[in-house]
Amino acid sequence: MTDDDARAPRADAARNRDMLLAAATRAFAASAAEPSMRAIAREAGVGIATLYRHFPTRESLVDAVYHDQMQRLTLGARELLEQLPPGKAMRRWMDLFADWLATKRGMLDTLRAMLESGEIADGRTELLDAITIILDAGAADGELRADVSAEDVAASLLGLLAVAGRSGNQAQAGRLLDLLMDGLRPRPAGRLPQPHGWQPPPRSARASGGCGCQVWRWAAG
């Protein structure tokens, strides 16, 4: 077998895996109940044997989709900052986050079981790191407030999308995200003085005590 012959099956396998991940992401986002593995294979345009060759169990497929989406959130923050000023990058990233939540809709039962058993990490650190990247850039440029933590943004996003996102009202979700963005912009000088002794919260969630609230538990499964 030549090197070209060996590379062709590897390229085909990688392409099939990418198609399966994309198809599973669409299927999980579109369905309130968990879609069957056969339905996902059909969506990808491959046979069920090909799906099981790449993902032997439903759990392995959910794990791959979950981590793929978390990676997209983190990389998305950096890529958006390369293309846009921090304020616009944050608003675009909020849309990525909303898409991530939608993806989880059709895999909640499996994901919840995997989280409870410790088979998969909840992704909280990656999420907060992505937010921090944009907040730090925005604070340095003066586009975003320096007194807001990544936890503040995460809790706000989870709360508003728990309402608007679950209802499927995309127009309302967009308006609420715009309102949140307004709150992240620096206040004009002399407006709304802070109480005596007030200190801004630490930027890092790891330093500020955690976002282990009910809305995070909902988002994580």
The proportion of strand residues reads under 5%
Overall average pLDDT: 81
Query: Which oligomeric state applies?
Result: single chain
Query: What is the H/E order?
Result: HHHHHHHHHHH
CATH architecture of the largest domain: Orthogonal Bundle
Structural class: mainly alpha
Q: In percent, how helical is the residue content?
A: over 70%
What's the story with the biggest beta sheet? Answer: none
> What Rg is obtained from the alpha carbons, in whole angstroms?
20 Å
Low-pLDDT runs of 5+ residues are 205-216
Q: How many individual domains? A: 2
* Distance separating the two termini: 47 Å
Which key features would you list for this structure?
single chain; mainly alpha; Tetracycline Repressor, domain 2; 72% helix; 0% strand
